[in-house]
Write a structure and sequence with these properties.
Layout: H1 3-13, E1 18-22, E2 38-40, E3 59-67, E4 71-80, E5 87-91, E6 108-115, E7 118-124, H2 127-136, E8 146-147, H3 156-169, H4 177-192, H5 196-201, H6 203-230, H7 237-269, E9 275-276, E10 288-290, H8 293-297, E11 307-312, E12 332-336, H9 343-351, E13 354-358, E14 375-376, H10 377-389
Parallel strand pairs: 3-7, 11-12, 12-13, 13-14
Antiparallel strand pairs: 1-6, 1-8, 2-5, 3-4, 4-5, 6-7, 9-10, 10-11
Helix pairs in contact: 3-4, 3-6, 4-6, 4-7, 6-7
Pfam families: EcoRII-C, EcoRII-N
Domain Restriction endonuclease type II EcoRII N-terminal: 16-115
Organism: Phocaeicola plebeius
Amino acid sequence: MSEFLNNAIVKVQNAKYAFCRFITANDVGKNGSHQAGFYIPKCAAALLFDTPGVKGENKDKMVKVKWQDDFTTDSRFIYYGQGTRNEYRITRFGKGFPFFEEDNVGDLLIIAQQSEDYYYGFVLQTDQDIDDFFAYFNLSPEKTNQLIDITQASTPEKQLEIGIQELVALYDDFPETRQMAQFARDIYNKAHHITDIHICKSPDEQLLKWIDTEYSLFRSFEEKVYAPIYNVPFSSCQELVKFSNIILNRRKSRAGKSLEHHLATIFTAAQLEYEEQVVTEDNKKPDFLFPNGEAYHDILFPANKLVFLGAKTTCKDRWRQILNEADRIETKYLFTLQQGISKNQLREMKHEHLKLVVPAPYRTSFDKEFQPEIETLASFIEMVKLKQSSAPIYSV
């Protein structure tokens, strides 16, 4: 979803009243009447006036309309009730108003009321923007030319919930871990219109959103798969314990692997060169090597251009496991979702040349003395980009 369309949707959502209709040939002056402005049907009169017009009388009011979040017109809302007329219009757009052209026929006009005398106006000109706007507010073309019922908005939260329900309905068992992570990203990205641009702009935020979505997805699968089992009495306490361990082990296994899958997606979006599970000394397999295993095993490749990253959901007791996974690289990086570690452990990590990488909101959970030395995902990516911009290129 474009930023422009998103702005239009937000203005409609927050409006007291909002209205949309397609611009017609009459509007743009094919019959010479475009000076009368945009026609507003009686069913949308509340958009213009607090009370309906009275037949036999004219009434009007002056308002400001900000168009396309760009320029403002001093416009006039008028009800024509005298003589044979009985209609509402928006007039006075000033010279050079850009939406009374032949090419504007078929565009979608949107008017949203912010206050009594201040409005927003948008003209959607592409099929994609119009389709996305209709989809968001659950509209169809025949439901235009009337006030928009914003209660029908398909909010990202609703789309997320529906997406999870629809996916779970397709399966009788848990998807493979990589699939589960992919499904969570796809569902969240679709609901919130996330692109690689958004991922690169705020990798820390996107990662946490994906993890949260996957947790909700996984819980829904648990309810579907396990409900038939736990709804029947267990034959013994041992059977109950066995069943509980199955649940817990699956949760722990999924969480660790999913974190790696999500990080890989972000690194790919950021166009970093990396390789997963490269075999190093003593058959060790680091989670991520930048740029790749070929560079690592080439003694002529500068060691200071190599980057190691481990990934562990928690690391309080397990951070030492990665220290000997890549002997050529002195400083190791470890991404974790851990929120806070003791000062003693942080000092020990520093002594062992290990640097933590955590989601940006988590950095404040660590002692202030060490916060400057802790990388966010965004700053880690920028560091790798800087190294790779001046390093020999290795393709895998």
